[in-house]
Amino acid sequence: MQKTQRLFLCLLCLAFISLACLSTGEPFEPYPAETATLIKPTVTPAATVVRSTQTPSAKAKPACAVISADEALHLRVGPDEHSRSLAFMVNGEVVKLISAANVNWWRIKIGDQIGYARSKYLEKSECEGRR
Q: Which helix (H) or strand (E) holds 34?
């Protein structure tokens, strides 16, 4: 098609649309009014508090962990290798597992000391029959 023919077809289409709008009595809108409505943002809470449905008698059993290091494992003040060492633990020693929320460092208790140890050298176990 030549340029003039395309221009003629475009003008013809516009004329047809204009006539169609005039016959209905409504103004021509290229987009319906519904799509131009403002959507109000919704506020979502930062965190949702979930309350436990367990009764006090149905408490979870305390978890323990067994040291599985070739050499001594450090109990550290913080969850990183540069934190001060509180104690050394040996292979096979059983500790109380407080939290395994951090993938690389678990919070544990040994004796009266609480600190962090590398999770790759700890294996979860049940506390029953141990200690």
A: none
* Sheet of strand 63-67, all strands in order from the earlier edge strand to the far edge: 85-89, 73-76, 113-118, 105-110, 94-99, 63-67, 122-126
Distances (CA, A) of 131 to 48, 87, 92, 94, 96: 37, 18, 12, 7, 10
> Across-strand partners of 94?
66
Q: What is the per-residue pLDDT for 57?
A: 45
DSSP-derived 3-state class of residue 4: helix
For residue 52, give the amino acid letter: S
Name the residue with tokens 């003039």. 4
Of 19, 20, 108, 103, the C-alpha closest to 67 is: 108
* pLDDT recorded at residue 60: 60
Backbone angles phi, psi at 69, to 5 degrees: -100, 145
pTM attached to this predicted model:
0.52
Residue of 88 and 47 predicted with greater confidence: 88
* pLDDT-above-90 percentage for the chain: 37
